[in-house]
Design brief:
By secondary structure, the chain is of the alpha+beta class. It has three domains: 124 residues, 2-Layer Sandwich (Beta-Lactamase), CATH 3.30.450; 146 residues, no CATH class; 157 residues, Heat Shock Protein 90 (2-Layer Sandwich), CATH 3.30.565. The chain is built from 13 helices and twelve strands. Strands 2-1-5-4-3 form a five-stranded antiparallel beta sheet. β4 and β5 form a beta hairpin. The mean pLDDT is 89. Bound molecules: adenosine-5'-triphosphate and magnesium ion (MG). The site of adenosine-5'-triphosphate (ATP) has 22 residues, from α11 and α12.
Length: 479
């Protein structure tokens, strides 16, 4: 059928109906406002988005449905449209019937008849979802950045630790290999002296006298006797002079090991009396070289022991990273951290006041080692490696409390409230990321359900960490 078949009146009606349906069916919010602010018309999407029923429209003016956050901005827009200015891409926040904000974006135009303003028309799109996803994306980006920064801080901390550790491992390793070389040299020297004695044809009794003093020296060496340096020098001098008087060529290199084994001039005189004169020098040498072998072996044993201790601490320190939930003696982690940080803490007097009866605490994720590490690292920076750090532990009800106090310069009053903020640092650029205490705070509070506080005055800064003791222990102690 063609349009001409209909009367102008029905064509007009049909056209009117068509536009009505298009407008009603649109997903955008469409509104027509009279100059006095009352509503001439709104579509279904408008009702749906703002929650008002059709019967409520007559009692509303446009300002009832604009959120107060954008009221002023919208009043300006309305005035502009009333003056015949078309507005595109404007932001409007509508106010839902329940008071919530409905963020929209759209355009507004005016309708004039014979030069007179009849109404303003607005077409708006609800952009809540878009804003939400933009907000989520921004939050995600921030979280990712913070996560990355935290990871970098961990890596930097690891770098610092491994630098300190390699230094710590290097010292005993070097001492052990130096001492192992000494053992070889001392054994060769001792063999040569033994041969000399055999060539001199010493008797079994002579040999027994030498061995007996050697054994006695060996035993004495193990007894740690505290003598002053002055005393030691005096004794060494006496032995050296006596040996010189008795034509011992290496008098002064033998004097020190003999002195440290508590040998006196009288004992040397007894030995001399029991031997042919020419046997004295190789005999004393044999004893001194034997002592030197023992001394070097002691160093090897101490050094390798220290290496094992460091390796065990590292193992225990890093294994925590893998286990999820563990009940641990809080002191174990503190001790391991002290071993690992030994290099950074060099020169600082560490005072431990531990209540070893504290029950185990339940640790999660990477445990509390990073907490001790970061606080001790800060303390080392604050004391300039020459003060004192006191670590106290005690039980307070269901909590294990650890207090770490340093004698550094203290935290200024204006800095104190900010120290747990991420990226807050007062250290020169490049030397601190400001994430140390942020990580500490997260581990203590979020991961372990504990608390952490800091108090400071010049010369005294205390961090107090309280974490719950293992739940099983709590249960049994309360029943
Ligand atoms: N024991 C302390 N004595 C004095 N000031 C401290 C002490 N501990 C922390 N602070 C202050 O708190 C700030 C933040 O510490 P945080 O450990 O978070 O970062 P940082 O040590 O500066 O850097 P990072 O730990 O990443 O190397 C420090 O810059 C310092 O000003
Ligand atoms: Mg720090």
């Amino acid at each position: 059928m063609k349009d001409e078949q209909f009367s102008p009146a029905s064509r007009l009606q049909e056209s009117e109906q068509r536009y009505q349906e298009i407008i009603e069916g649109a997903s955008d919010l469409i509104q027509s406002i009279r100059p006095d602010g009352t509503f001439e018309f709104v579509n279904r999407s408008w009702h749906k988005a703002l929650g008002y029923g059709e019967d409520e429209l007559a009692g509303l003016v446009i300002w009832d449905v604009i959120h107060q956050d954008r009221l002023e901005e919208c009043q300006i827009h309305f005035m502009q449209v009333m003056q015949g200015i078309d507005l595109e891409n404007i932001r409007v926040d509508f106010r839902h019937k329940d008071g919530s904000k409905v963020p929209c974006e759209g355009s507004a135009h005016s309708r004039f008849v014979d030069g007179q303003l009849i109404a303003t028309h607005g077409f708006f799109r609800d952009i809540s979802e878009r804003l939400n996803s933009e907000r989520l994306a921004t939050e995600n980006r921030k979280l990712e950045e913070a996560e990355r920064a935290r990871y970098q801080e961990k890596m930097a901390a690891l770098g610092k630790l491994s630098a300190g550790l390699s230094h710590e491992l290097n010292n005993p390793a070097a001492a052990a290999s130096r001492s192992a070389r000494n053992v070889t040299q001392a054994l060769q020297a001792r063999d040569a002296l033994q041969r000399q004695l055999l060539e001199q044809g010493i008797s079994l009794e002579n040999w027994a006298a030498i061995e007996s003093l050697g054994t006695w020296c060996e035993e004495q060496r193990r007894v740690v006797s505290e003598i002053s340096t002055m005393d030691a020098n005096r004794r060494e001098e006496a032995i050296g002079s006596w040996l010189e008087e008795h034509q011992v060529a290496e008098a002064w290199s033998y004097a020190q090991p003999l002195m440290s084994a508590d040998v006196t001039v009288d004992r040397l005189a007894d030995l001399a009396a029991a031997l042919p004169a020419e046997a004295l020098e190789p005999a004393v040498g044999w004893i001194a070289e034997s002592l030197s072998v023992q001394e070097s072996l002691d160093v090897v044993s101490r050094s390798t022991g220290r290496i094992s201790q460091l390796v065990a601490a590292v193992k225990s320190y890093s294994f925590r990273d893998q286990a999820q939930v563990q009940d641990v003696d809080i002191h174990e982690g503190i001790e391991n951290t002290l071993v690992i940080l030994a290099y950074q803490l060099k020169g600082i007097d560490i005072v431990k006041d531990f209540d070893r009866s504290i029950p185990p605490v339940r640790t999660y994720g990477s445990g509390l080692n990073q907490v001790w590490t970061n606080i001790l690292d800060n303390a080392a920076d604050a004391t300039g490696k020459s003060g004192r750090v006191t670590i106290t532990t005690r039980r307070e009800g269901d909590r294990a409390v650890v207090e770490i106090t340093d004698t550094g310069g203290g935290i200024p009053e204006e800095v104190l409230p900010r120290i747990f903020e991420p990226f807050y640092t007062t250290k020169p650029q490049g030397s601190g990321t400001g994430l140390g205490l942020d990580i500490v705070w997260r581990i203590v509070t979020e991961e372990h359900g504990g608390t952490i506080t800091a108090e400071s005055e010049p010369g005294r800064t205390t961090f107090s960490i309280a974490v719950p003791v293992c739940p099983d222990v709590r249960d049994t102690s309360s029943s």
